[in-house]
Amino acid sequence: MTTPDNNARRKFIAAAGAGVAGLGFTAIAPGLHLMAVGEASAATEARKAGTAASPAVRWGLLIDAGKCAPGCTKCIDACHTENGVSEKLPDPRQNSQWIRKIELVDRRNGKKTELPMMCQHCAEPPCVDVCPTGASMKRADGIVLVDRHTCIGCRYCMMACPYKARSLVHVPLTEQNPEVPRGQGCVESCTLCVHRVDKGQTPACVESCPEGAMMFGDLNDPASAIAKRIASVPTTQVRADLRLNQGVRYQGL
Amino acid sequence: MMLNPRHEEGFFYLLAAIGGLVSALGVGAALYMEHSGHVVTGMNNQIVWGLPHVVAIFLIVAASGVLNVASMGSVFGRKLYKPRAPLSGLLAIAMLSGGLAVIMLDLGRADRIIVAATHFNPTSVFGWNVILYPVFYGIAAVYLWTMMERRMYPWMKVAGFAMFIWRIVLTTGTGAIFAFLVARQAYGTALLAPMFIIMSFCWGLAVFLVVQSTMYAWNGLSLPPLVLQRMKNLLATFVAAVLYFTIVLHLVNAYFAKNIAFEYFILFDSEFAGMFWIGQILVGTLLPLALLFNPATAAKALWVNVAALLVVVGAYYQLYVFIIGGQAFPLDIFPGYDVKSSFMDGAVDHYTASLPEIILALGGLGIAFTMTTIGVRILHFLPQDDLAELEAAASATD
């Protein structure tokens, strides 16, 4: 799913970075390593405990903007309930928003559209490239995550994300969902409900949508419903010009 | 006017105490932010870097540039600059310390700073900087050693050259933090790397001139006119060069249809437009150039220092417009659409620094100030010019 030029670009950046590191100063960075990804057989159902995510799978979403009902926020409510995102700060700009509704008006013809926007789970995620500690990472099955143990809260990934998908936790947290660890001072974003996906379930937003506007599945599996739909109807990647190869696709834009 | 030695000593302790107090308050503000979370700052999920970053980046960029004074002597063999190299090295270490302290204390998880050293991502410019900064310290320390220890003199040129190369790399790394950002329209251009280097030359020299003049005045001395003239000419050249890069940056950006809205915003239609035209261009560029080129003011140390101070003031405006203004403009996620959401999509954001942020930022300046004050006191880095030799060198080159 990755384009050759993007692979070359990443290799180039990594080589340049390794060059800086290699100038005899690796001694101060003894933990020098690339994020290891596991090798496992393709898993399209629940992932067995103790097995790594499979690189044969590419989890993704297809969102039909034509079906997304104006004013409906069920996906947002479901996401934030599922993931324990409940803080309501005096300055709403400081609240975490893992998923949000965007209202669009086409400047050419005034056509109105609404759609949910969240982490686009890029194959070439800028947030992963810029993260100094490797906390921002892409799992083998394409899900982009933040390791809450190594995120130092520098917010460089928030500067780098073209979709404004990330939030910083601005306050101490209580009453978290045990399956979804969050933490003050760490950056977070949509996990594609990785804890549900690993149990063979679909993300909360997909499950909650009354219009059936969201579809979840394995983009790599030609037999999956999502892959079949993408093969049969015109779909869009947001800011496709950036060639980040997102796992979230839109229909009806 | 020379201070009475007893008064002079008291005055030194007073300055050191003020610097120490401001630094301590900065650390206190950081602890408060750490305890309460970034909710007590003016930063949010749209404007993620605020005033602390403006001040920190000024200090880091100027720290690299102030070493230009040393490089002029050691790498380019300019006699006038050689006696100034130790002071330039000290200022570099002091300012880098202040800047890095602010960056690190502003982290969402400042307590995990060690993770930045134990986990390294080679594709991250921030990751590169984690290596660039400590090595900068190391080379600067060795360079100072070669200048202060007679047995090490033969290594001074090598250390000076290494320092020169490393600070070019370091400032490229600082510029690349923004140059590598694809998401926001204010950034993402290779021009930022060389532009940051010329900004560092300019701001570093301006800071050096002010500190040098203060030290001379403290000791009842005045800067030799030849030294003043050379250094003010160099400053004027750097100020003009920064202006050149600023013009090219905006011209290129405005030429692309996709960026016209952003350029209009930053230059004409926002709270940042006034900061750009009055703060950066008028106060930070045109006024200093006028003072440095007007024969009536250019020969007087006072006016050259005023020009240098204005350059520093302009630098802060420039970084504020660049960093805060660049984030305040909404991301163009859906080109061709008008958008709105609960997350500031399509909307211009407004940022006001909160008190803890302001105190943290001042704390960084306090650290740089305290280290400089104590350093020049202990190490006797007042430049000692051999005027006869300088005159001879000047007449030989003229």
CATH class assignment of the largest domain in chain A: Alpha Beta
Helix fraction bin of chain A: 10-25%
Largest sheet of chain A: 4 strands, mixed
| Alpha plus pi helix count of chain A | 7
**N- to C-terminal distance of chain B:** 34 Å
Which protein chains make the most extensive interface, counting residues with beta carbons within 8 Å of the other chain's beta carbons? A-B, 72 and 59 residues
Give a brief description.
Chain A has helices spanning 4-21, 74-82, 126-130, 156-160, 194-197, 204-208, 225-232, and strands spanning 59-64, 99-106, 112-118, 136-138, 144-146, 167-168, 187-188, 214-218, 235-236, 248-251. The longest helix of chain A is centred in the N-terminal third of the chain and has 18 residues, at 4-21. In chain A, 21% of the residues lie in helices and 17% in strands.
Key traits:
heterodimer; A: 253 residues; alpha+beta; Alpha-Beta Plaits; 2 domains; four-stranded mixed beta sheet; two-stranded antiparallel ribbon; 7 helices; disordered N terminus; B: 398 residues; mainly alpha; Formate dehydrogenase/DMSO reductase fold; 15 helices; globular
Describe this structure in words.
The complex is a heterodimer of chains A (253) and B (398). With 253 residues, chain A is an alpha+beta fold. Chain A has helices at 4-21, 74-82, 126-130, 156-160, 194-197, 204-208, 225-232, and strands at 59-64, 99-106, 112-118, 136-138, 144-146, 167-168, 187-188, 214-218, 235-236, 248-251. Chain A has 2 domains: 1-30; 58-251, Alpha-Beta Plaits (2-Layer Sandwich). Chain A has a 4-stranded mixed β-sheet with strand order 8-1-10-9. A two-stranded antiparallel sheet of chain A has the order 2-3. Chain B is mostly helical and 398 residues long. In chain B, helix 2 packs across helix 13 (301-328) and helix 8 packs antiparallel against helix 13 (301-328). At the A-B interface, helix 1, strand 2, helix 3, helix 4 and strand 6 of A face helix 5, helix 6 and strand 1 of B.
